[in-house]
Amino acid sequence: MSIITKDDFTNSICDALQYISFYHPPDFIRALNEAYQREESPAARDAMAQILINSRMCAEGHRPICQDTGIVNVFLKVGMEVRWDTDTGIDEMVNSAVRRAYLDTDNPLRGSVVTDPAGERRNTGDNTPAVIHKDIVPGDGVEITVAAKGGGSENKSRFAILNPSDDIVAWVLQQVPTMGAGWCPPGILGIGVGGTAEKAMLLAKEAILEPVTMHELQARGPHNRLEELRLEIFEKVNALGIGAQGLGGLTTVLDVKLKDYPTHAASKPVALIPNCAATRHVHFTLDGSGPVDLVPPNLDDWPEITRETSANTRRVRLDDIDPAVELDWQPGDTLLISGKLLTGRDAAHKRIIEYLDRGEPLPNGLDFRGRFLYYVGPVDPVGDEVVGPAGPTTATRMDKFTDELLEKTGLLGMIGKAERGPAAIASIAKHKAVYLIATGGAAYLVSKAIRAAHVVAFPELGMEAVYEFTVEDMPVTVAVDTRGDSIHEIGPREWKMRIGNIPVVTE
């Protein structure tokens, strides 16, 4: 019999959340580095370089890998012989640990959880409550898996109840292109098959937290049907040519994990959940001997990588930019931007559109004429930082606001993550604007280009407030040019043809 104390339990989960905020799992880094070394697409290779450089910086600086420090997922397997020394319930203890971890003054993590999700959507401020799963199992210990899942990957989850005769691989290949690049590939696909609707989703979530073992599986070959499926899906998804950040390339996924469960004879539930390039999780066991001792990984696990400036890199001054200059930019061009830009996410966009619809002037400081808008919700700064990790958020969520914003404000362009939808692209072309992307999963690296930051509007929105950033040599890529040509359409199509394993359908 083991006695697990309240302090040991909460301290362990708190420490685990801090640990995973700045340490990638070493197996993920090894797999990503191997993919980086193999990558032939210059744009995808540069994106992976930024992710790897960012990861090492975060490990050294103990700052978050991604500005989206995730909604907390905790999986508990509680031994039947365990005794608890606590005056509170398990859920309360977990949430107490989450609160402490996210409000840590040395490394504050961004509060992303909102309550009243169907109504006012008020930020809880401390990222509570967590999503907690509990199993009672034989034994006298508590196995704990702590994960933080960002919205960019969670939002790309897919689920269907297929007919028993339907092909799982075909369904996955149908779904992955619809996920876009907002889940920050290259990452991991977790697939759950069987059970009921909710069981399949849980299996998929559990699957993505398993070790990255694809190279071992490829080397030894499959031993059962699930391993056959893993291999087939891995090869065929990568043959889609989506590539890192959706830019087109050889590697879209680093592994495919699959778990199954018996199901009804008339059913085949299938769930798909991706893990992004900022994948964060850790597994440990408490046995009553004290809190977990999480040993920092060896920095030798990270490759030494230096970004190279390509021939199509140009420097751009934002403060006095001539709109005519944008006409020469091509999809895939790399820009190093300097000057002032404004930020804004979903909640700020909604507020701004309400002002415009009422015909009211925008609050002081919100003059978008001749300016760029960066889709970001940064982490709070510490020490001498002007801002915490500040990577881009998924841009398609802003698509519905784009045309009115371009029409009524004089905005020149936007910076975000991943692709834009057809309506937004059409609007960008109509207004001769541009859409640029920063690399998702490189938030700390991006933040080092920000020289000044202050809130100019809607401070009550917390991380969704509008900031003005002053940036210097911030790396971005032209994703949609003034003609409406998109790298997220051009790149994957080109690399799908180069790989040549899946026919390319032309319109």
What does this protein structure show overall?
There is one protein chain. This protein has 507 residues and is an alpha/beta fold. It folds into two domains: 2-286, no CATH class; 313-492, Alpha-Beta Barrel (fumarase). The protein has helices at 6-22, 26-38, 42-61, 90-102, 151-154, 168-175, 197-207, 214-220, 225-238, 346-358, 399-409, 422-430, 443-447, 487-499, and strands at residues 2-5, 71-79, 82-85, 114-115, 122-123, 131-137, 142-149, 158-162, 187-194, 253-261, 268-275, 281-286, 313-317, 334-343, 372-374, 413-416, 434-437, 450-457, 466-480. The strands form five sheets. A five-stranded mixed barrel has the order 14-15-16-17-19. Strands 6-2-7-12 form a four-stranded mixed beta sheet. Strands 8-11-9-10 form a four-stranded mixed beta sheet. The longest helix is centred in the N-terminal third of the chain and has 20 residues, at 42-61. It is globular, with a radius of gyration of 23 Å.
User: What count of structural domains?
Assistant: 2
Number of strands: 19
Report Rg. Answer: 23 Å
**How far apart are the first and last residues' alpha carbons, in Å?**
66 Å
| Strands in their spatial order, largest beta sheet | 14-15-16-17-19
Main sheet characteristics: 5 strands, mixed, barrel
Q: How helical, in percent, are the residues?
A: 25-40%
Using brief descriptors, characterize the structure shown:
507 residues, fumarase
Draw up the topology in text:
Layout: E1 2-5, H1 6-22, H2 26-38, H3 42-61, E2 71-79, E3 82-85, H4 90-102, E4 114-115, E5 122-123, E6 131-137, E7 142-149, H5 151-154, E8 158-162, H6 168-175, E9 187-194, H7 197-207, H8 214-220, H9 225-238, E10 253-261, E11 268-275, E12 281-286, E13 313-317, E14 334-343, H10 346-358, E15 372-374, H11 399-409, E16 413-416, H12 422-430, E17 434-437, H13 443-447, E18 450-457, E19 466-480, H14 487-499
Parallel strand pairs: 1-3, 2-6, 9-10, 13-14, 14-15, 15-16, 16-17
Antiparallel strand pairs: 2-7, 4-5, 7-12, 8-11, 9-11, 14-19, 17-19, 18-19
